[in-house]
Amino acid sequence: MRSLRISEIMSNHIEPVRCGTPVTQVVKILLANHVTGLPVVDEQRKVLGFVSEQDCIHSLLVSNYHREGDPLVDDVMFRQPLTVSPDMSVVDLAQNLGAGRPKVYPVVDHGKLIGIVTRTAILAELAKADFKAGSPRFADAED
Fold first, then answer.
1. Which stretches make up the CBS domain (predicted)?
2. Domain 6-86+93-129: assigned CATH number
C-alpha cells in the first residue's frame, strides 16, 4: 500500500503573488481564491516570502491611518515561509499542524513553487477517506 502525498491534494491553479504587487491587489486574489495566504515568488517561481490575510489587514489599517497609499507585498510579506515537498506524506504534515502554524503551505519542487496545500484540503481528504488509525491510504509505508 502507498501513503497519500501532498502532490495528490495540492492546488496548482492559483497563481502566486509577485514582488511589487500592491496589497489591495493581493487582497483581491486572496478573496477570489478563498485562501488565507499565498506565496510570493520571483520570475523563476522561487519562493521569496508569504503573505497572509492578517498581514494585509494590518498593512491596510496602518497605511490608511497614516494615509501612505497602497503598500506593496514586499513590505508586508513574511520572508522565511515554511514550505513542503510534493512527496511529503499528508499524515506527516497533518501531525505537524497546530496553533501558530501556517494554514497554507507553498509546495516546492527543485526550488520552484508548484502549488499550495491548505489545512482545508488536508481536512477534506482525511474526512473523505474516512480516516482511521492504520488506514492503508494514510499508512506511512513506502510505495
1. 10-68, 77-133
2. 3.10.580.10
